[in-house]
Specification:
Chain A: It comes from Desulfosporosinus nitroreducens. Chain A: This is (2Fe-2S)-binding protein. The complex is a heterodimer of chains A (161) and B (798). With 161 residues, chain A is an alpha+beta fold. Chain A is built from five helices and five strands. By secondary structure, chain B is of the alpha+beta class. In chain B, strand 23 and strand 24 form a beta hairpin. The chains are: A alpha+beta (161), B alpha+beta (798). The complex binds FE2/S2 (inorganic) cluster (2 copies).
């Protein structure tokens, strides 16, 4: 039996008909149509499906859609700033060459945002620790860490949200 | 970098000339677009989550395909019953192997794979049937309803056992001894050379079974037009052309009725360097049901069908004269092929070619065999054929340096090849800065001051390496150019590069835009790149063998000659000067002598197109085709055409490790790398490739290994049990691009995508030896192995 629920994604309410066992990643990608969130493993191991739920990074491939009602969900599409400007973390990823194939990127950027929200002046170790759940097979991580460090500078200076 | 100071009061050097004494890659006057670390052109859409990968696509009326997989690693298929599945509401069609029995494989002479198993399964998880259904859940439910009856056969998981028991059971009826292919190459007089050597050492090395771990699973979306018989396939592939060709063979429809398009690709590393059953299944099902069909693997399926790195069982013997010059190498290699041939023969002979560089080897012998086993097939994985022998050879040399009482750096430098070297197998190296790589990495890391002097548990190790920059031959017999590009210029579309090259994340679209802009005298942002489409793009072989920058660069240069000539002639008429006196730079066309005579580039385009219409330049590239011969006897050597390349990239790495003697864990603390990639078209992209390569092989050296149980069942088909490096395993990385310019190459470029994986295994293994005094000959080097070795060592010392 399908059930009609409301999901608050990127400050917009989506009404979706779902099964109780539907996973959040599938609902976001297939029903809502926001395909920026990626499914790299479906087992909670790679971090590609990371979204923010009430500001906290969560793996949407092991989360039920039904359990995400009434919460604020942010996906990669929700980061774009006014006038289509890139979010400083997104800009930093581009400028620092932290993107190659880009499949890990949405999840990686959301984990980066969450860590900077918590700690706008992180040490390298803190960044590494917080990003350790996101696998990137292309970059060797070096430029990703540099991008987060660069974003952190803008962050603390301008108090980005 | 110091700028050249011009002595003369007036700067009379015409613009565009290469100033003597300035490396051309750093000569700002010569290059404006090449050599710049510009951000990738696909960066913004990727960070916004707007890049469309195959799995993100939906077409009207699209349905879903799923594959039923074998639960035996080796068995006869007695019966497949699909009746119940077909009756399930929502199921549109079922497919079995008999419906598409034509064999496919990237090397046509050895092609022996079918879309779904025919008559027999040869590895656990092999596809036996497929379903198309209205939604994924129904497709999955239908798979459960398909009944397959098997008659199990003995399962052979080890190549030696497979050869031994081949009388009793054959994996492929036509492959005697379960050997896919065996070969021998002999150059010079190896035995005589060994007899005269002062130092001789022989060791055995065994490598592991890692896989690529690209983050985007194989995905395919096919749409067959039942009215006109046209098939359109969107696929996550590195090789649109070879896929296109094989699709034509399997579906028995001409290539001109098939179009392959690559959406954004989420990494490949060789794992998408062969066609995949997902692609065939999507196409066959779409033809059957007359609707678009999408097939996306889950991670487990990626593991089951992966074409990872060949485990190699190698015996290597090297002989040095009293001064430490290499006189002979004898290399015996048994490769674990897994179930199907794929890239097999190529990989076998690539391992053979690896003994000829980056050191001078006057006498060499190779004996090798690639042996079928009941495992997922092995195939192309970053640094194909190179990583395993490089590990063995560099570790062996480390040990031999110790035998001689000299530094491994001294030994390697002494034997390192230089520009213009011809190997005994006729491989020609037009240009090499390998020595500079060794020097840079050693100096910057302080290797000589540290090696042998660090406290117990800490160590440092070094290694060199090289890789090809594209191949000399196609995988099927043909002498057509390996790349063709078309550049279209007009007032509407601006500049568009059309080439079927595959952007798989490595950044080729950005690099190609930079090269086009350089040649046309415009900015890289002005260039649109249409790649990865067999119908829109001109011909390209694909992204493998680190070939693209070189091949596309050469083709682009050729195409731009045509365009520039037309524009110069147009401008010459307008300016009243000779066309050959014109220079095109920074969106302007001007006389190199009367610099006031100039018009804007756009104006010239406008005038040209208003007379002639769209301006098009075509260019192509064919590599030099050297033959694999023994250069002393002149005799052809079997398989020795493999390994030749227009030019070669070189690199060196120094690894510093800490070994926790309590837990056996190895921590890589710092990696200092120096690479010769010729001109770095985009230095930031080069660094990204190198850093990615280092992490990739740190993972394969220390953690990654696919495990199967005795029945051949995959034990770690997920990222939880198959561990890849995370940020926590990341060492400090100091990567350096050495000054290099290959005059024989377009823009002076060479490879960088696979060379940097080569020295990682041996540098790390040598560092571990320096730390704890134990040499490892088996990979991956796990904490258990370290603890056991330390215990054995202690007992030995008592
Ligand atoms: S897709 Fe969710 S963790 Fe990999
Ligand atoms: S950029 Fe490809 S996985 Fe991270």
């Amino acid at each position: 039996m399908k059930k009609l629920i409301e999901l608050d994604i990127n400050d917009r309410i989506y009404e979706v008909a779902i099964d109780a066992r539907d996973l959040l990643i599938d609902v976001i990608r297939n029903k809502v149509g926001l395909t920026g969130s990626k499914k790299g493993c479906g087992d909670g191991d790679c971090g590609a499906c990371t979204v923010l739920i009430d500001g906290k990074p969560e793996l949407s491939c092991i989360k039920l859609a039904i359990a995400s009602q009434g919460k604020k969900i942010t996906t990669i599409e929700g980061l774009v700033q006014e006038g289509g400007q890139l979010h400083p973390i997104q800009q930093a990823y581009v400028d620092h060459g932290a993107v190659q194939c880009g499949f890990c990127t949405p999840g990686m950027i959301l984990s980066s945002k969450a860590l900077l929200d918590r700690n706008p002046d992180p040490t390298e170790h803190y960044i590494k620790h917080e990003l350790s759940g996101n696998i990137c097979r292309c970059t060797g991580y070096k430029r990703i860490i540099e991008a987060v460090e660069a974003a952190a500078k803008v962050w603390s200076k301008e108090g980005v949200q | 970098m110091e700028k050249k100071v011009l002595k003369s009061k007036w700067n009379l050097t015409p613009e565009g000339w290469n100033l003597e004494g300035v490396p051309s890659s750093q000569d700002e006057k010569r290059y404006t677009q090449v050599g710049r670390s510009v951000p990738r052109i696909d960066g913004p859409i990727k960070v916004k989550g707007e890049a469309i990968y195959t799995g993100d696509m939906t077409l009207p009326g699209m349905v879903y395909g799923k594959i039923k997989r074998s639960t035996y690693a080796h068995a006869i298929i007695k019966k497949i019953d699909c009746c119940k599945a077909l009756k399930l509401p929502g199921v549109l069609a079922v497919l079995t192997g008999d419906e598409a029995p034509n064999k496919w494989g990237i090397v046509p002479q050895a092609a022996n794979e079918t879309v779904l198993a025919v008559g027999k399964v040869r590895f656990y998880g092999e596809g036996v049937a497929a379903v198309a259904a209205l939604d994924e859940e129904t497709a999955e439910a239908a798979l459960e309803l398909i009944e397959v009856e098997y008659e199990p056969l003995p399962v052979l998981l080890d190549p030696f056992q497979s050869m031994e028991r081949s009388q009793e059971v054959l994996i492929h009826e036509d492959s005697k001894g379960n050997i896919m292919h065996a070969g021998e190459q002999v150059y010079g007089d190896v035995d005589k050379a060994f007899a005269e050597c002062e130092y001789v050492l022989e060791r055995e090395f065994h490598t592991n079974y890692p896989q690529h771990g690209f983050l985007e699973p194989h995905s395919a979306l096919a749409s067959y037009d039942t009215q006109n018989g046209q098939l359109h396939l969107w696929a996550s592939s590195q090789i649109p052309h070879y896929l296109h060709r094989q699709m034509s063979i399997v579906l028995e429809i001409p290539m001109n009725k098939i179009r392959v398009t690559l959406p954004t690709i989420g990494g490949g590393f060789g794992g998408k360097g062969e066609a995949a059953p997902s692609e065939f299944v999507a196409c066959l099902l779409s033809r059957k049901v007359g609707r678009p069909v999408k097939v996306v693997y889950d991670r487990q399926e990626v593991f089951y069908t992966n074409k990872g790195r060949h485990p190699c069982h190698m015996k290597v013997k090297m002989g040095l004269d009293k001064d430490g010059y290499i006189q002979a190498v004898d290399f015996d290699n048994t490769l674990d092929k897994g179930a199907y041939s794929g890239w097999g023969i190529v990989v076998l002979f690539y391992t053979a070619s690896m003994i000829h560089l980056p050191y001078k080897v006057p006498n060499a012998r190779f004996r090798g065999r690639s042996v079928y086993t009941n495992k997922p097939s092995t195939g192309a994985m970053r640094g194909l054929g190179g990583v395993q022998p490089r590990w063995a050879l560099e570790c062996l040399m480390d040990e031999m340096a110790e035998m001689m009482g000299i530094s491994p750096y001294e030994l390697k430098l002494k034997n390192a090849i230089e520009s213009g070297h011809t190997c005994i197998n006729n491989m020609f190296v037009p240009h090499s800065e390998f020595k500079k790589c060794l020097e840079t990495a050693v100096k910057k890391s302080g290797f000589l001051e540290k090696q042998g002097k660090l406290p117990f548990g800490k160590g440092i190790g070094m290694a060199g390496g090289y890789y090809i920059t594209g191949t000399a031959y196609t995988l099927y017999q043909n002498y057509k150019p390996h790349t063709t590009v078309m550049i279209r210029v007009d007032t509407e579309g601006g500049v568009t590069l059309l080439c079927a090259a595959a952007e798989i994340g490595q950044g080729c679209n950005t690099v190609m835009a930079q090269m086009v802009a350089e040649e046309l005298g415009i900015q890289y942002e002005d260039v649109h790149v249409q790649s990865g489409d067999t119908e829109i793009g001109a011909f390209d072989l694909g992204s493998f063998a680190s070939r693209l920058t070189y091949a596309a660069g050469a083709a682009i240069k050729m195409a731009c000659v045509e365009i520039n000539q037309s524009l110069k002639e147009t401008a010459a008429g307008m300016l009243g000067v000779r066309a050959d006196q014109l220079v095109i730079k920074n969106h302007e066309i001007y006389s190199m002598y009367e610099i006031k005579k100039r018009i804007s580039w756009e104006k010239a385009i406008e005038v040209y197109t208003s007379i002639n219409g769209t301006l098009v330049g075509m260019g192509n590239f064919s590599p030099p085709r050297r033959k694999g011969i023994d250069i002393i006897s002149g005799n052809r050597v079997q398989g020795a055409n493999i390994g030749h390349s227009p030019t070669f990239g070189f690199s060196s790495q120094v690894h510093e490790v800490e070994v926790d003697v309590e837990t056996g864990r190895i921590y890589v603390k710092k990696v200092t790398e120096a690479g010769d990639c010729g001109t770095p078209v985009n230095p930031m992209c080069v660094d990204g490739q190198v850093e990615g390569s280092i992490m990739f092989n740190i993972g394969a050296c220390l953690y990654e290994d696919q495990k199967l149980d005795a029945s051949g069942k995959h034990l770690n088909p997920n990222f939880h049990d198959y561990k890849t490096p995370t940020t926590m395993e990341m060492p400090e990385m100091d990567t350096n691009i050495v000054e290099s310019y290959d005059h024989s190459a377009p823009f002076g470029v060479k490879e960088t995508g696979e060379g940097a994986v080569q020295p990682t295994f041996p540098a790390l293994t040598n560092a571990i030896y320096d730390a704890i005094g134990v040499r490892f000959y088996t990979l991956p080097i796990t904490p258990e192995m370290v603890l056991k070795a330390l215990k054995d060592k202690k007992e030995g010392e008592l």
